[in-house]
Write a structure and sequence with these properties.
single chain; about 575 residues; alpha/beta; Rossmann fold; 3 domains; 7-stranded parallel sheet; 19 helices; RNA binding; Helicase_C-like; ATP-binding
Protein backbone atom coordinates (compact mmCIF):
# COMPACT_ATOMS: atom_id res chain seq x y z
CA UNK A 1 0.00 0.00 0.00
CA UNK A 2 1.25 3.49 -0.70
CA UNK A 3 2.23 5.54 2.28
CA UNK A 4 -0.47 8.09 3.14
CA UNK A 5 -1.17 10.48 5.98
CA UNK A 6 -4.32 12.34 6.93
CA UNK A 7 -4.94 16.06 7.32
CA UNK A 8 -7.98 18.28 7.75
CA UNK A 9 -9.49 20.13 4.81
CA UNK A 10 -11.41 23.44 4.95
CA UNK A 11 -14.46 21.63 6.38
CA UNK A 12 -12.36 19.94 9.09
CA UNK A 13 -12.79 16.59 7.33
CA UNK A 14 -9.77 14.24 7.36
CA UNK A 15 -8.49 13.61 3.83
CA UNK A 16 -5.67 11.26 2.75
CA UNK A 17 -2.67 12.90 1.17
CA UNK A 18 -0.06 10.93 -0.77
CA UNK A 19 3.33 11.83 0.63
CA UNK A 20 4.90 11.48 -2.79
CA UNK A 21 3.38 14.86 -3.59
CA UNK A 22 5.48 16.34 -0.78
CA UNK A 23 9.15 15.73 -0.09
CA UNK A 24 9.14 11.95 -0.59
CA UNK A 25 11.53 9.58 1.17
CA UNK A 26 11.98 5.83 0.79
CA UNK A 27 10.53 5.39 4.28
CA UNK A 28 7.34 7.14 3.16
CA UNK A 29 6.50 4.36 0.66
CA UNK A 30 5.75 1.79 3.37
CA UNK A 31 8.37 -0.71 2.16
CA UNK A 32 9.55 -3.69 4.20
CA UNK A 33 12.22 -2.76 6.81
CA UNK A 34 14.78 -5.23 5.42
CA UNK A 35 14.38 -3.79 1.95
CA UNK A 36 14.79 -0.27 3.35
CA UNK A 37 18.05 -1.37 4.99
CA UNK A 38 19.27 -2.59 1.60
CA UNK A 39 18.33 0.74 0.02
CA UNK A 40 20.06 2.69 2.78
CA UNK A 41 23.21 0.61 2.23
CA UNK A 42 23.39 2.09 -1.29
CA UNK A 43 23.58 5.58 0.26
CA UNK A 44 20.96 7.13 -2.03
CA UNK A 45 20.18 10.73 -1.07
CA UNK A 46 16.46 10.11 -1.69
CA UNK A 47 14.08 8.83 -4.34
CA UNK A 48 14.32 10.30 -7.82
CA UNK A 49 11.29 11.55 -9.73
CA UNK A 50 10.67 8.26 -11.53
CA UNK A 51 10.95 6.36 -8.23
CA UNK A 52 8.63 8.79 -6.46
CA UNK A 53 5.98 8.38 -9.17
CA UNK A 54 6.41 4.66 -9.92
CA UNK A 55 6.77 2.96 -6.53
CA UNK A 56 3.39 4.03 -5.02
CA UNK A 57 1.54 3.10 -8.23
CA UNK A 58 3.36 -0.24 -8.36
CA UNK A 59 2.42 -1.02 -4.75
CA UNK A 60 -1.20 -0.40 -5.75
CA UNK A 61 -0.84 -3.09 -8.43
CA UNK A 62 -1.18 -0.77 -11.44
CA UNK A 63 0.36 -1.55 -14.83
CA UNK A 64 2.97 1.11 -15.65
CA UNK A 65 4.51 2.43 -18.86
CA UNK A 66 7.27 4.86 -17.89
CA UNK A 67 9.64 7.04 -19.88
CA UNK A 68 12.54 8.53 -18.01
CA UNK A 69 16.02 9.54 -19.07
CA UNK A 70 19.16 7.51 -18.55
CA UNK A 71 20.55 7.57 -15.01
CA UNK A 72 17.26 8.56 -13.37
CA UNK A 73 16.83 5.35 -11.36
CA UNK A 74 14.34 3.27 -13.38
CA UNK A 75 15.89 -0.01 -12.18
CA UNK A 76 15.23 0.71 -8.51
CA UNK A 77 11.78 2.06 -9.41
CA UNK A 78 10.57 -1.42 -10.39
CA UNK A 79 12.90 -3.59 -8.27
CA UNK A 80 11.77 -2.03 -4.97
CA UNK A 81 8.07 -3.02 -5.29
CA UNK A 82 9.00 -6.43 -6.77
CA UNK A 83 11.36 -7.30 -3.90
CA UNK A 84 8.87 -5.88 -1.39
CA UNK A 85 6.21 -8.24 -2.78
CA UNK A 86 8.60 -11.23 -2.75
CA UNK A 87 9.43 -10.68 0.93
CA UNK A 88 5.74 -10.74 1.89
CA UNK A 89 4.82 -13.66 -0.34
CA UNK A 90 4.89 -17.16 1.13
CA UNK A 91 5.99 -20.33 -0.64
CA UNK A 92 8.50 -21.20 -3.34
CA UNK A 93 7.63 -20.03 -6.82
CA UNK A 94 8.84 -17.70 -9.54
CA UNK A 95 6.87 -14.50 -9.04
CA UNK A 96 8.80 -12.00 -11.22
CA UNK A 97 10.32 -12.11 -14.70
CA UNK A 98 12.55 -9.23 -15.86
CA UNK A 99 13.30 -9.07 -19.59
CA UNK A 100 16.23 -7.03 -20.93
CA UNK A 101 17.82 -6.77 -24.39
CA UNK A 102 21.42 -7.67 -23.49
CA UNK A 103 23.44 -9.86 -21.15
CA UNK A 104 25.33 -6.83 -19.85
CA UNK A 105 22.11 -5.25 -18.64
CA UNK A 106 20.92 -8.54 -17.14
CA UNK A 107 24.13 -8.86 -15.11
CA UNK A 108 23.89 -5.26 -13.98
CA UNK A 109 20.26 -5.64 -12.84
CA UNK A 110 21.11 -8.88 -11.04
CA UNK A 111 23.85 -7.06 -9.14
CA UNK A 112 21.45 -4.26 -8.11
CA UNK A 113 18.74 -6.74 -7.08
CA UNK A 114 21.15 -8.75 -4.92
CA UNK A 115 22.41 -5.60 -3.19
CA UNK A 116 18.85 -4.43 -2.43
CA UNK A 117 17.88 -7.87 -1.12
CA UNK A 118 21.08 -8.33 0.91
CA UNK A 119 19.19 -8.39 4.24
CA UNK A 120 16.49 -10.79 3.04
CA UNK A 121 18.49 -13.21 0.91
CA UNK A 122 16.69 -16.25 2.33
CA UNK A 123 13.32 -14.89 1.22
CA UNK A 124 14.31 -13.38 -2.13
CA UNK A 125 16.29 -15.52 -4.57
CA UNK A 126 17.51 -13.96 -7.82
CA UNK A 127 18.58 -15.96 -10.88
CA UNK A 128 20.08 -14.67 -14.14
CA UNK A 129 19.61 -17.00 -17.15
CA UNK A 130 20.84 -14.63 -19.84
CA UNK A 131 24.29 -16.23 -20.09
CA UNK A 132 25.64 -18.82 -22.49
CA UNK A 133 25.09 -21.80 -20.20
CA UNK A 134 23.57 -24.85 -21.81
CA UNK A 135 19.81 -25.40 -21.55
CA UNK A 136 20.38 -28.35 -19.17
CA UNK A 137 22.34 -26.09 -16.83
CA UNK A 138 19.66 -23.41 -16.99
CA UNK A 139 16.97 -26.01 -16.30
CA UNK A 140 18.84 -26.87 -13.09
CA UNK A 141 19.12 -23.16 -12.24
CA UNK A 142 15.34 -22.76 -12.61
CA UNK A 143 14.43 -26.00 -10.84
CA UNK A 144 14.73 -24.29 -7.45
CA UNK A 145 12.00 -21.81 -8.50
CA UNK A 146 13.87 -18.53 -7.86
CA UNK A 147 11.64 -15.60 -6.91
CA UNK A 148 13.08 -13.25 -9.54
CA UNK A 149 14.32 -14.42 -12.95
CA UNK A 150 16.29 -12.05 -15.19
CA UNK A 151 16.64 -12.98 -18.83
CA UNK A 152 16.78 -11.89 -22.43
CA UNK A 153 13.50 -12.57 -24.30
CA UNK A 154 15.10 -15.29 -26.43
CA UNK A 155 16.36 -17.31 -23.47
CA UNK A 156 13.12 -16.87 -21.56
CA UNK A 157 11.06 -18.03 -24.55
CA UNK A 158 13.21 -21.14 -25.06
CA UNK A 159 12.99 -22.12 -21.38
CA UNK A 160 9.24 -21.55 -21.36
CA UNK A 161 8.82 -23.77 -24.42
CA UNK A 162 10.84 -26.65 -22.94
CA UNK A 163 9.08 -26.40 -19.57
CA UNK A 164 12.10 -25.28 -17.54
CA UNK A 165 10.56 -21.87 -16.74
CA UNK A 166 7.03 -21.91 -15.38
CA UNK A 167 4.99 -18.69 -15.35
CA UNK A 168 1.83 -20.08 -13.72
CA UNK A 169 2.55 -18.22 -10.46
CA UNK A 170 3.97 -15.08 -12.07
CA UNK A 171 2.94 -11.80 -10.42
CA UNK A 172 5.22 -9.20 -12.09
CA UNK A 173 6.61 -8.88 -15.61
CA UNK A 174 9.17 -6.16 -16.44
CA UNK A 175 10.43 -5.23 -19.90
CA UNK A 176 13.38 -2.90 -19.31
CA UNK A 177 14.74 -0.72 -22.16
CA UNK A 178 11.50 -1.76 -23.82
CA UNK A 179 11.99 0.01 -27.15
CA UNK A 180 15.49 -1.43 -27.48
CA UNK A 181 14.26 -4.93 -26.61
CA UNK A 182 11.76 -4.82 -29.46
CA UNK A 183 14.34 -3.29 -31.78
CA UNK A 184 16.64 -6.28 -31.33
CA UNK A 185 14.19 -8.48 -33.21
CA UNK A 186 12.54 -10.03 -30.13
CA UNK A 187 8.94 -9.46 -31.22
CA UNK A 188 8.18 -13.16 -31.73
CA UNK A 189 9.77 -14.09 -28.40
CA UNK A 190 7.78 -11.41 -26.59
CA UNK A 191 4.54 -12.56 -28.22
CA UNK A 192 5.29 -16.13 -27.19
CA UNK A 193 5.94 -15.04 -23.58
CA UNK A 194 2.69 -13.04 -23.49
CA UNK A 195 0.70 -16.17 -24.40
CA UNK A 196 2.10 -17.97 -21.36
CA UNK A 197 1.23 -15.24 -18.86
CA UNK A 198 -1.55 -15.93 -16.35
CA UNK A 199 -4.28 -13.32 -15.89
CA UNK A 200 -3.66 -10.43 -13.55
CA UNK A 201 0.11 -10.16 -14.02
CA UNK A 202 1.38 -6.66 -13.24
CA UNK A 203 3.29 -5.16 -16.19
CA UNK A 204 6.20 -2.66 -16.14
CA UNK A 205 7.38 -1.25 -19.48
CA UNK A 206 10.39 0.99 -18.79
CA UNK A 207 12.28 2.99 -21.40
CA UNK A 208 14.22 6.17 -22.09
CA UNK A 209 11.81 6.96 -24.95
CA UNK A 210 8.12 6.48 -25.67
CA UNK A 211 7.50 5.69 -29.33
CA UNK A 212 5.57 3.36 -31.61
CA UNK A 213 7.56 0.36 -30.34
CA UNK A 214 6.30 1.01 -26.82
CA UNK A 215 2.75 1.23 -28.16
CA UNK A 216 3.27 -2.18 -29.81
CA UNK A 217 4.46 -3.71 -26.52
CA UNK A 218 1.61 -2.09 -24.64
CA UNK A 219 -0.83 -3.74 -27.02
CA UNK A 220 0.80 -7.12 -26.40
CA UNK A 221 1.01 -7.02 -22.61
CA UNK A 222 -1.43 -4.50 -21.09
CA UNK A 223 -4.60 -2.59 -21.93
CA UNK A 224 -4.98 0.31 -19.52
CA UNK A 225 -1.63 1.19 -17.94
CA UNK A 226 -0.61 4.39 -16.20
CA UNK A 227 1.70 6.29 -18.56
CA UNK A 228 4.44 8.29 -16.89
CA UNK A 229 6.24 10.64 -19.27
CA UNK A 230 8.83 12.08 -16.95
CA UNK A 231 11.47 14.61 -17.78
CA UNK A 232 15.12 13.79 -17.25
CA UNK A 233 16.36 14.36 -13.73
CA UNK A 234 18.67 17.09 -14.98
CA UNK A 235 16.14 19.18 -16.89
CA UNK A 236 15.93 21.85 -14.20
CA UNK A 237 19.44 21.19 -12.91
CA UNK A 238 22.75 21.64 -14.65
CA UNK A 239 22.41 20.53 -18.26
CA UNK A 240 25.13 19.03 -20.38
CA UNK A 241 27.34 21.66 -21.98
CA UNK A 242 27.56 20.64 -25.64
CA UNK A 243 30.42 21.77 -27.84
CA UNK A 244 31.07 21.12 -31.54
CA UNK A 245 34.46 21.34 -33.30
CA UNK A 246 34.72 21.20 -37.11
CA UNK A 247 37.95 19.52 -38.21
CA UNK A 248 39.70 17.27 -40.72
CA UNK A 249 39.80 13.54 -40.11
CA UNK A 250 43.46 13.63 -39.01
CA UNK A 251 42.90 16.69 -36.82
CA UNK A 252 40.61 14.60 -34.61
CA UNK A 253 43.72 12.79 -33.36
CA UNK A 254 45.61 16.06 -32.92
CA UNK A 255 42.74 17.60 -30.93
CA UNK A 256 42.32 14.55 -28.71
CA UNK A 257 46.04 14.45 -27.96
CA UNK A 258 46.20 18.16 -27.13
CA UNK A 259 43.07 18.11 -24.97
CA UNK A 260 44.40 15.37 -22.72
CA UNK A 261 48.02 16.55 -22.63
CA UNK A 262 47.04 20.15 -21.85
CA UNK A 263 44.41 19.01 -19.32
CA UNK A 264 41.58 20.70 -21.22
CA UNK A 265 39.55 17.58 -20.38
CA UNK A 266 39.58 16.57 -16.74
CA UNK A 267 37.93 13.70 -14.94
CA UNK A 268 36.55 10.44 -16.30
CA UNK A 269 35.88 10.49 -20.03
CA UNK A 270 34.14 8.20 -22.50
CA UNK A 271 35.42 8.50 -26.08
CA UNK A 272 32.93 7.23 -28.68
CA UNK A 273 34.40 6.07 -31.99
CA UNK A 274 32.83 4.62 -35.11
CA UNK A 275 34.03 1.00 -35.08
CA UNK A 276 36.30 -1.54 -33.39
CA UNK A 277 39.29 -0.74 -35.58
CA UNK A 278 39.18 2.95 -34.63
CA UNK A 279 38.87 2.14 -30.93
CA UNK A 280 42.29 0.45 -31.02
CA UNK A 281 43.73 3.10 -33.34
CA UNK A 282 42.82 5.86 -30.87
CA UNK A 283 44.08 3.81 -27.92
CA UNK A 284 47.46 3.12 -29.55
CA UNK A 285 47.76 6.76 -30.61
CA UNK A 286 47.13 8.06 -27.07
CA UNK A 287 49.63 5.53 -25.68
CA UNK A 288 52.35 7.32 -27.68
CA UNK A 289 51.90 10.26 -25.30
CA UNK A 290 51.67 8.22 -22.10
CA UNK A 291 47.86 8.56 -21.95
CA UNK A 292 46.34 5.33 -20.64
CA UNK A 293 42.89 4.13 -21.70
CA UNK A 294 40.78 0.98 -21.93
CA UNK A 295 38.71 -0.31 -24.84
CA UNK A 296 35.12 -1.56 -24.86
CA UNK A 297 33.85 -3.22 -28.03
CA UNK A 298 31.88 -6.15 -29.41
CA UNK A 299 34.92 -8.37 -30.03
CA UNK A 300 35.61 -8.76 -26.32
CA UNK A 301 33.91 -11.58 -24.34
CA UNK A 302 31.02 -10.63 -22.09
CA UNK A 303 32.93 -11.04 -18.83
CA UNK A 304 35.75 -8.91 -20.19
CA UNK A 305 33.34 -6.12 -21.14
CA UNK A 306 31.83 -6.18 -17.66
CA UNK A 307 35.31 -6.17 -16.14
CA UNK A 308 36.29 -3.14 -18.26
CA UNK A 309 33.20 -1.25 -17.05
CA UNK A 310 34.04 -2.11 -13.43
CA UNK A 311 37.65 -0.93 -13.84
CA UNK A 312 36.45 2.33 -15.35
CA UNK A 313 33.90 2.86 -12.57
CA UNK A 314 36.54 2.16 -9.91
CA UNK A 315 38.86 4.76 -11.41
CA UNK A 316 41.60 2.38 -12.57
CA UNK A 317 41.17 3.98 -15.99
CA UNK A 318 39.97 7.54 -16.51
CA UNK A 319 39.47 7.15 -20.27
CA UNK A 320 37.24 4.53 -21.85
CA UNK A 321 37.11 4.16 -25.65
CA UNK A 322 33.82 2.65 -26.83
CA UNK A 323 33.09 1.50 -30.37
CA UNK A 324 29.67 2.25 -31.76
CA UNK A 325 28.92 -0.42 -34.37
CA UNK A 326 25.85 -2.06 -32.83
CA UNK A 327 27.69 -0.44 -29.96
CA UNK A 328 29.17 -3.12 -27.62
CA UNK A 329 26.81 -5.78 -28.83
CA UNK A 330 27.96 -6.78 -32.28
CA UNK A 331 25.77 -7.62 -35.25
CA UNK A 332 24.18 -10.66 -33.67
CA UNK A 333 21.24 -11.32 -31.43
CA UNK A 334 22.93 -11.44 -28.02
CA UNK A 335 21.12 -14.43 -26.60
CA UNK A 336 20.65 -16.75 -29.54
CA UNK A 337 23.64 -15.87 -31.76
CA UNK A 338 21.35 -15.57 -34.74
CA UNK A 339 21.58 -12.55 -37.05
CA UNK A 340 19.32 -9.60 -36.35
CA UNK A 341 16.51 -9.43 -38.86
CA UNK A 342 16.72 -6.85 -41.57
CA UNK A 343 13.58 -5.12 -40.44
CA UNK A 344 15.26 -4.27 -37.13
CA UNK A 345 18.45 -2.88 -38.68
CA UNK A 346 17.24 0.67 -38.20
CA UNK A 347 17.61 0.26 -34.45
CA UNK A 348 21.28 -0.61 -34.59
CA UNK A 349 22.44 2.96 -34.02
CA UNK A 350 20.28 3.44 -30.94
CA UNK A 351 21.69 0.79 -28.70
CA UNK A 352 24.59 -0.66 -26.79
CA UNK A 353 27.01 1.22 -24.60
CA UNK A 354 25.07 4.48 -24.88
CA UNK A 355 22.03 2.76 -23.40
CA UNK A 356 21.47 0.93 -20.14
CA UNK A 357 24.97 0.20 -18.83
CA UNK A 358 25.93 2.21 -15.74
CA UNK A 359 29.05 4.36 -16.00
CA UNK A 360 29.73 6.25 -12.79
CA UNK A 361 30.86 9.87 -12.40
CA UNK A 362 31.56 10.58 -16.06
CA UNK A 363 32.72 14.17 -16.47
CA UNK A 364 33.00 14.30 -20.23
CA UNK A 365 31.74 12.50 -23.33
CA UNK A 366 33.98 12.96 -26.37
CA UNK A 367 32.34 12.07 -29.68
CA UNK A 368 35.47 11.33 -31.65
CA UNK A 369 33.14 10.20 -34.46
CA UNK A 370 29.59 11.51 -34.61
CA UNK A 371 26.95 8.74 -34.60
CA UNK A 372 24.75 8.21 -37.63
CA UNK A 373 21.56 9.26 -35.79
CA UNK A 374 20.66 12.15 -33.52
CA UNK A 375 18.97 9.72 -31.06
CA UNK A 376 22.22 7.88 -30.48
CA UNK A 377 23.93 11.24 -29.89
CA UNK A 378 21.53 12.12 -27.07
CA UNK A 379 21.89 8.67 -25.53
CA UNK A 380 25.67 9.03 -25.65
CA UNK A 381 25.79 12.41 -23.94
CA UNK A 382 23.34 11.05 -21.37
CA UNK A 383 26.27 9.18 -19.83
CA UNK A 384 27.43 12.45 -18.23
CA UNK A 385 25.73 15.15 -16.12
CA UNK A 386 23.75 12.55 -14.19
CA UNK A 387 22.14 12.82 -10.76
CA UNK A 388 22.34 16.60 -10.78
CA UNK A 389 26.05 16.78 -11.58
CA UNK A 390 27.47 18.89 -14.36
CA UNK A 391 29.00 17.41 -17.48
CA UNK A 392 30.48 18.24 -20.86
CA UNK A 393 29.99 16.75 -24.32
CA UNK A 394 32.56 17.58 -27.02
CA UNK A 395 31.94 16.39 -30.57
CA UNK A 396 34.22 16.41 -33.60
CA UNK A 397 32.51 16.64 -36.96
CA UNK A 398 33.91 16.67 -40.48
CA UNK A 399 32.48 19.34 -42.82
CA UNK A 400 31.43 18.14 -46.25
CA UNK A 401 34.30 19.85 -48.03
CA UNK A 402 36.86 18.14 -45.75
CA UNK A 403 35.44 14.62 -46.01
CA UNK A 404 38.19 12.15 -47.04
CA UNK A 405 40.67 14.98 -47.41
CA UNK A 406 43.07 12.89 -45.31
CA UNK A 407 42.36 9.35 -46.51
CA UNK A 408 44.56 7.36 -44.07
CA UNK A 409 42.45 8.53 -41.10
CA UNK A 410 39.10 9.04 -42.85
CA UNK A 411 36.00 7.31 -41.47
CA UNK A 412 33.16 6.38 -43.83
CA UNK A 413 30.50 7.35 -41.31
CA UNK A 414 31.66 10.99 -41.33
CA UNK A 415 30.17 11.64 -44.75
CA UNK A 416 26.82 12.73 -43.24
CA UNK A 417 28.15 14.60 -40.19
CA UNK A 418 26.60 17.91 -41.22
CA UNK A 419 23.15 16.35 -41.67
CA UNK A 420 23.38 14.59 -38.29
CA UNK A 421 24.45 17.86 -36.67
CA UNK A 422 21.46 19.63 -38.20
CA UNK A 423 19.10 17.03 -36.69
CA UNK A 424 20.87 17.25 -33.33
CA UNK A 425 20.27 20.99 -33.20
CA UNK A 426 16.66 20.53 -34.33
CA UNK A 427 15.81 18.08 -31.53
CA UNK A 428 17.44 19.90 -28.61
CA UNK A 429 15.32 20.31 -25.48
CA UNK A 430 14.34 23.70 -24.14
CA UNK A 431 17.38 25.36 -22.67
CA UNK A 432 19.83 23.07 -24.46
CA UNK A 433 21.93 23.88 -27.48
CA UNK A 434 25.29 23.18 -29.06
CA UNK A 435 28.08 25.74 -29.00
CA UNK A 436 31.16 26.26 -31.12
CA UNK A 437 34.19 25.31 -29.04
CA UNK A 438 36.06 28.16 -30.78
CA UNK A 439 39.31 26.26 -30.67
CA UNK A 440 42.20 28.11 -32.31
CA UNK A 441 43.82 25.36 -34.38
CA UNK A 442 46.87 27.57 -35.08
CA UNK A 443 47.87 27.19 -31.43
CA UNK A 444 48.32 23.48 -32.06
CA UNK A 445 50.87 24.00 -34.83
CA UNK A 446 53.82 23.32 -32.46
CA UNK A 447 52.30 19.91 -31.71
CA UNK A 448 51.90 18.84 -35.32
CA UNK A 449 55.31 17.26 -35.80
CA UNK A 450 54.81 15.15 -32.66
CA UNK A 451 51.28 14.27 -33.71
CA UNK A 452 52.43 13.21 -37.18
CA UNK A 453 55.23 11.10 -35.71
CA UNK A 454 52.83 9.30 -33.37
CA UNK A 455 50.19 8.78 -36.04
CA UNK A 456 52.74 7.19 -38.38
CA UNK A 457 53.59 4.67 -35.66
CA UNK A 458 49.95 3.51 -35.45
CA UNK A 459 49.92 1.43 -38.62
CA UNK A 460 47.19 -0.91 -39.80
CA UNK A 461 49.41 -3.83 -38.83
CA UNK A 462 49.82 -2.37 -35.32
CA UNK A 463 46.05 -2.02 -34.96
CA UNK A 464 45.47 -5.57 -36.15
CA UNK A 465 48.11 -6.93 -33.76
CA UNK A 466 46.57 -4.98 -30.87
CA UNK A 467 43.18 -6.57 -31.56
CA UNK A 468 44.74 -10.04 -31.79
CA UNK A 469 46.80 -9.50 -28.65
CA UNK A 470 43.76 -8.48 -26.61
CA UNK A 471 41.82 -11.57 -27.72
CA UNK A 472 44.85 -13.78 -27.03
CA UNK A 473 45.09 -12.39 -23.50
CA UNK A 474 41.44 -13.23 -22.95
CA UNK A 475 42.11 -16.80 -24.08
CA UNK A 476 44.91 -17.09 -21.55
CA UNK A 477 42.72 -15.74 -18.73
CA UNK A 478 39.61 -17.75 -19.67
CA UNK A 479 38.42 -20.01 -16.87
CA UNK A 480 36.51 -22.15 -19.38
CA UNK A 481 39.72 -22.90 -21.30
CA UNK A 482 41.90 -23.57 -18.24
CA UNK A 483 41.01 -27.29 -18.26
CA UNK A 484 41.81 -27.53 -21.97
CA UNK A 485 45.20 -25.87 -21.46
CA UNK A 486 45.98 -28.29 -18.63
CA UNK A 487 45.37 -31.21 -20.98
CA UNK A 488 47.08 -29.50 -23.94
CA UNK A 489 50.12 -27.62 -22.59
CA UNK A 490 51.58 -27.28 -26.10
CA UNK A 491 48.60 -25.12 -27.10
CA UNK A 492 49.20 -22.87 -24.10
CA UNK A 493 52.91 -22.61 -24.92
CA UNK A 494 52.10 -21.72 -28.51
CA UNK A 495 49.75 -18.89 -27.50
CA UNK A 496 52.26 -17.54 -24.97
CA UNK A 497 55.03 -17.71 -27.58
CA UNK A 498 52.93 -15.81 -30.11
CA UNK A 499 51.99 -13.31 -27.41
CA UNK A 500 55.66 -12.53 -26.74
CA UNK A 501 56.31 -11.99 -30.43
CA UNK A 502 53.37 -9.66 -30.90
CA UNK A 503 54.21 -5.97 -30.84
CA UNK A 504 51.73 -3.18 -31.28
CA UNK A 505 52.65 0.41 -32.08
CA UNK A 506 56.17 1.49 -31.21
CA UNK A 507 56.05 3.54 -28.01
CA UNK A 508 58.14 6.73 -28.18
CA UNK A 509 58.60 7.78 -24.58
CA UNK A 510 59.83 11.28 -25.40
CA UNK A 511 56.43 12.23 -26.82
CA UNK A 512 54.72 12.27 -23.43
CA UNK A 513 56.88 15.20 -22.27
CA UNK A 514 55.51 18.62 -23.20
CA UNK A 515 58.21 21.29 -23.11
CA UNK A 516 57.11 24.83 -22.37
CA UNK A 517 57.92 26.12 -25.82
CA UNK A 518 55.13 23.94 -27.26
CA UNK A 519 52.48 25.44 -25.03
CA UNK A 520 50.09 27.97 -26.61
CA UNK A 521 51.42 31.37 -25.55
CA UNK A 522 54.18 29.68 -23.57
CA UNK A 523 57.52 31.41 -23.02
CA UNK A 524 60.85 30.02 -21.89
CA UNK A 525 62.97 31.62 -19.17
CA UNK A 526 65.97 33.57 -20.46
CA UNK A 527 68.79 31.30 -21.57
CA UNK A 528 66.73 28.14 -21.28
CA UNK A 529 66.76 25.97 -24.39
CA UNK A 530 64.49 23.09 -23.48
CA UNK A 531 66.02 20.01 -21.90
CA UNK A 532 69.66 20.92 -22.66
CA UNK A 533 71.67 21.95 -19.61
CA UNK A 534 72.79 25.58 -19.15
CA UNK A 535 76.42 24.61 -18.72
CA UNK A 536 78.40 22.00 -20.55
CA UNK A 537 79.48 19.12 -18.36
CA UNK A 538 83.13 19.72 -17.46
CA UNK A 539 83.87 16.00 -17.69
CA UNK A 540 83.18 16.12 -21.43
CA UNK A 541 85.15 19.27 -22.32
CA UNK A 542 88.63 17.80 -22.40
CA UNK A 543 91.81 19.72 -21.56
CA UNK A 544 92.08 23.30 -22.70
CA UNK A 545 95.03 25.66 -23.00
CA UNK A 546 95.48 29.32 -23.82
CA UNK A 547 96.80 30.72 -27.07
CA UNK A 548 96.81 34.45 -27.61
CA UNK A 549 94.04 34.89 -25.02
CA UNK A 550 91.63 32.52 -26.77
CA UNK A 551 90.29 29.19 -25.58
CA UNK A 552 91.10 26.37 -28.01
CA UNK A 553 90.69 22.64 -28.02
CA UNK A 554 93.55 20.14 -27.96
CA UNK A 555 93.44 19.74 -31.75
CA UNK A 556 94.11 23.44 -32.15
CA UNK A 557 90.69 24.55 -33.29
CA UNK A 558 89.15 27.67 -31.80
CA UNK A 559 85.94 27.11 -29.83
CA UNK A 560 83.18 28.33 -32.23
CA UNK A 561 80.89 29.18 -29.28
CA UNK A 562 83.44 31.81 -28.15
CA UNK A 563 84.15 33.29 -31.57
CA UNK A 564 80.66 33.26 -33.10
CA UNK A 565 82.35 32.05 -36.23
CA UNK A 566 80.95 28.92 -37.79
CA UNK A 567 84.37 28.04 -39.24
CA UNK A 568 86.02 28.10 -35.82
CA UNK A 569 89.02 30.14 -37.04
CA UNK A 570 88.60 33.14 -34.84
CA UNK A 571 87.73 36.72 -35.69
CA UNK A 572 89.44 38.49 -38.54
Amino acid sequence: MPSTKRKLNDDDVPTPVNESSAEATFDSFGLEPRLLRGIRDQKFAGPTLVQTKTIPLALEGRDIVARSGTGTGKTLAYLAPIINSAIRRQGKHTSSLILVPTRELATQIQRVALSLAAHCAQDVRVQNISGKEGLDVQRAMLADLPDIVISTPGRASVNINNGALSLKDLVHLVVDEADLTLGYGHLEDLQNISKSLPKGVQIFLMSATLNTEIDTLQGIFCQNPVRLELDDLEKNAQLVKQYMIPCDADEKFLLAMAMFLLKLIKGKTIIFVGDVDRSYRVKLFLEQFGIKSCVLNSELPLQTRLHVVQQFNRGIYDILIASDEMEVLGAKNTDSDKPVKKKSKKYSNDSGVSRGIDFLNVSCVLNFDLPSSYKSYFHRIGRTARAGKSGTAISFFVPKEKYKKHKPTAFEGSENDEEVLRKINKHQKDGQHTEDFAFDMKKLDPFRYRFADALRAVTRIAVREARIRELRQELLKSEKLSRYFEENPEALSSIKHDHNLTHAARIQSHLKHVPDYLLPGGKLPAGDIGFVGLEKDKRDTGKKFKRKGKKVFRKGKVDPLKTFNAQGRGKK
